[in-house]
Design a protein that fits this description.
Length: 389
């Protein structure tokens, strides 16, 4: 897999507006954002010979090719779980490096807030997956009814083992909202908060507060991946894929791997870090900016630990005060706002922002950024990506 290093690049990105009600079907949103990403790259729909989607996305390859007038695809596939954004980039990079496709589009559209024409829930359709069966058969009878509840148990254990405090987690949300307040395309433009605002927000599931948790939104995103050779003639400077990896370890359950000896760690993220840093030939100290999974603020300190930016049990203290993770700090995080400060589309916007940083066009630009890291799927399965100039 190390053979994909520097053999593929992201050359076009697009992100629709975040809203509570898009007023559009997810298919229309997908087509519009794919067209925008191709325009960004200076390509047209007939250049596309590969599509990669998230497994639960409502718009399949047939719908996209028919609606957009694309020619024959030579490569198509899908990826599941919260790791999908970085994992879809990995899958596309493998296709490009192997010669299975020359121009692959990754896309996702979610009407998470309005629920307009979403795929029916597995839990209501009578077609339950193995994960659903585990969740609803073995967890729900004991009161574990939501994803937030699952994360809360992990976070409470982490707090017990490390003496982490809620105020320390609050700095993650505060910095994300600070970054989002500079981003006119996000949900929280000019809406920064203070730590006091965070501490005043209501408890959702102890110890998680409302401001620890992402808010559902309607949005779509797409990126275009091709060879470095093809990228030389396109409109935008390429964001070259230096390292990319995914991981699922033993006893994995999405967001609630309670059968492990230690439930207060994210071992998948650690495995991803080991592999993608080795592939890229760099160390955590070399990373200029990071976009981490912030669907839940307390998962950010755990990722910092697993990615090697700080030691075990030091993540919450690393975030305290915000100075080490904001612009100008040791590792600026989620510079467009992330899920907590820009909007939630399951980490797709994190990849878009990493590309912006490499191009030098972010609203929270890190001066001279040459290496950008993205991590998706905190809680497992996980994936990660290192982009460079």
């Amino acid at each position: 897999m190390d053979g994909i290093k520097d053999k593929a690049a992201i050359v076009g990105v697009a992100l629709s507006e975040f809203s509570a009600d898009s007023g559009k079907t997810e298919l229309r949103m997908s087509c519009e954002v794919i067209k925008a990403a191709l325009d960004d790259a200076g390509l047209v729909v007939t250049d596309v010979d590969g599509l990669v989607k998230q497994s639960e996305d409502a718009s399949d390859e047939h719908a996209i090719t028919s609606s957009m007038g694309m020619g024959n695809l030579t490569y198509f596939g899908e990826v599941k779980w919260g790791a999908a954004p970085c994992a879809m980039v990995l899958r596309s990079a493998v296709a490009v490096a192997a010669g299975s496709a020359k121009c692959v589009v990754v896309y996702r559209a979610v009407n998470g807030s309005s629920k307009l024409r979403m795929i029916p829930s597995m839990k209501t359709s009578g077609q339950m997956s193995t994960s659903d069966l585990l969740q609803w058969t073995f967890h729900s009878p004991y009161g574990l009814m939501t994803e937030t509840g699952s994360v809360a148990m992990l976070v409470r254990r982490y707090m017990h083992e490390t003496d982490a405090k809620a105020e320390q987690f609050g700095w993650v949300t505060t910095v994300c909202r600070e970054n989002g307040a500079r981003n006119p395309e996000g949900l929280y433009y000019e809406q920064s908060i203070t730590l006091e605002d965070y501490l005043a927000s209501r408890i959702v599931v102890d110890p998680l507060r409302e401001l620890d948790c992402y808010k559902e939104s309607d949005c779509a995103a797409a990126f275009v991946i091709t060879t470095p050779e093809m990228a030389k003639d396109l409109k935008q400077p390429p964001a070259v894929i230096r390292g990319c990896a995914q991981s699922m370890v033993g006893e994995t359950e999405r967001m609630n791997s309670y059968y492990r000896p230690d439930i207060a760690r994210l071992p998948e993220v650690g495995r991803v870090a080991e592999r993608m840093f080795r592939m890229a030939g760099v160390r955590p100290q070399d990373i200029d900016v990071a976009q981490l999974d912030d669907a839940y603020a307390p998962l950010v300190p755990l990722q910092l630990e697993e990615l090697g930016f700080c030691g075990r049990g030091e993540g919450a203290a690393y975030c305290e005060g915000g100075d080490r993770i904001r612009l100008g700090g040791e590792i600026p995080l989620n510079t467009s706002g992330g899920s907590l400060g820009e909007g939630h589309i399951h980490g797709m916007n994190h990849v878009v922002e990493a590309v912006r940083q490499i191009r030098g066009t972010s609203t929270g630009q890190v001066k001279g950024a040459e290496l950008a890291l993205v991590a998706t799927g905190a809680g497992g399965p996980a994936a990660g990506l290192i982009l460079g100039r």
